[in-house]
Amino acid sequence: SSSAESLDRFGALPAHYVFYPTRNRPSKRLADFAKTVAIVNERLKAAGRKDQLIGILTSPLTGKSAAGAGEHLISLSELTDAELGYLYKNALCLLFTSEMEGNFPTQITEALHLGVPVVATNIPLITLELEKASASLDLVDVGDCEGFADRVMSILADRSAAVRRQEGARELSSRKFAYDNFKRGLFELFRS
C-alpha cells in the first residue's frame, strides 16, 4: 500500500490512519482510541497482512493511556485549518470515542462534510440531533473497543461503501449545521 500524499510539514502520511482531533480529557476516552488501534493491528497481523493502522491525535497520549498502541500513535498539535482539512480528507475514518459532549461534535460535522466515514460512540447527542440519519453512521457503545475495531476493519475493507452508506447523515448534517442556519438563528435571537 502506498503512502497518502504529503503536506510539507508532515511528510508522507501513513497509508491507513484513523483521526480524532481533540484535547485529552477523560470524557474523550482516548485510551479507547488507542486500544482500538491496537486491536485492529492485532487483527491485521493475524490475517497475515503487512499493513498497519496508525492513530493520529492532536493531543499526546503516552503510558497506560496509549493502551499498547504507542508505536502506532502520532500526535500532531497546533494544526492550521488547511492541515486539519488535509488530515481529515486522507483519513480512513474519524474515530470518535467521546462519551459526553456539550453540543453536537464539530468533528463529526467536519468529517461528514469532507466525505470521511465516521465511527463514533452511540451517545444521545448524536442520535437525537441526526435522528433517523444517525442509523447510517457506524455507532458503537461507549467503551466497546472490539466494536470500534469491527467498524474500522469494515471501512478498511471498503471505504467508499462506508462513505455511500453515511450519505444520509452527511446531507442532514450539512443542512442542519450549516453556518447560514447558525447566522439566521443568531439574528432571530437578537431580533426578538
Describe the structure.
- Helices cover 44% and strands 15% of the residues.
- With 192 residues, the protein is an alpha/beta fold.
- The N terminus is likely disordered.
Mean pLDDT: 87
Which geometry do the CA atoms define? Answer: globular
Determine the fraction of residues in helical runs and give it as a percent range.
40-55%
Lateral arrangement of strands in the main beta sheet: 5-4-3-6-7-8
**Count of DSSP H/I helices:** 8
Give the terminus-to-terminus CA distance.
Answer: 57 Å
Using the CA coordinates, give the radius of gyration: 17 Å
Spans where pLDDT lies below 50 across 5 or more residues: 1-6
Strand content: 15-25%
Helix-strand makeup class:
alpha/beta
Order of helices and strands: EEEHEEHEHEHEHHHH
What would a concise description of this structure say?
The protein is built from 8 helices and 8 strands.
Give a topology summary:
Elements: E1 4-7, E2 11-13, E3 17-20, H1 30-46, E4 54-57, E5 73-75, H2 81-90, E6 93-96, H3 106-113, E7 118-121, H4 124-130, E8 138-140, H5 145-157, H6 159-165, H7 167-176, H8 179-191
Parallel strand pairs: 3-4, 3-6, 4-5, 6-7, 7-8
Antiparallel strand pairs: 1-2
Helix pairs in contact: 1-5, 5-6
Summarize this structure as a short list of keywords or feature phrases.
192 residues, two-stranded antiparallel ribbon, 8 strands, globular, alpha/beta, disordered N terminus, six-stranded parallel sheet, 15% strand, 44% helix
